[in-house]
Amino acid sequence: xxxxxxxxxxxxxxxxxxxxxxxxxxxxxxxxxxxxxxxxxxxxxxxxxxxxxxxxxxxxxxxxxxxxxxxxxxxxxxxxxxxxxxxxxxxxxxxxxxxxxxxxxx
Length: 106
Prior knowledge:
CATH class of the domain at 3-11 and 35-92: Alpha Beta
Number of helices: 3
Largest sheet: 4 strands, antiparallel
Order of helices and strands: EHEEHHE
Strand content: 25-35%
Oligomer: single chain
């Protein structure tokens, strides 16, 4: 299957969440070029107290190589001054389904 990295960034409120979202709008995109990278998503909790950064990977080793790379350090060079606290977890996908494509409408 695949692997998903989930990074939860907890903030004091919507203003801080907005700042994090804005920073990601201008992200470098370095992760997009990494071997095994499948996708990136940014989520904000409805109350504005948590932002989720989700990346999908082909293999665990691909994610670990990204985290150890100079490109990762460069992409995260401003993270130390960002609002909130971050906690990351890596998950292995064990089961998955997808919705079928919509029927052809003529």
